[in-house]
Design goal:
Length: 144
Amino acid sequence: MVLLLSPVTGFNLIYVSSELGRIFCLEAASGKVKWTVDMTDDLGGKLNMFGNSESLFVDEKNVYCMPGGDHGTGAYKLQLSPDGKTIHEIWRNGDVLNALGGFVKIGDRLYCASKDHKLKCLDTNNGMVVDSLPNMSGSVIYAD
């Protein structure tokens, strides 16, 4: 497995995303795998020529990801079970397509760049786009 991005840590867990689009949640102390999800097989994402190369965002109960690719399936909010052993989809926004980059979360707003060259702002409660700005390309994270 090749990791193109830095792992995300928090809540005694480590989250990593492989170049082939598999997300792993590991116990920080032992390295034991708690759960995995495949963004291609499970979420219908597509790998681009770089593979999966977008940053995950994790808060205390959720994982935000973009399966990406030229015809990716959008941005996702996945919720962790109370015991942290399973995960399920809360929402999906197919209007946000991205193969590179990640998210910035401020309050209940999630910001990300999209392949239509816009900076999009999503409501974290329902995944709906609440605002967008034109002429944005690349990643919203330049110092991650």
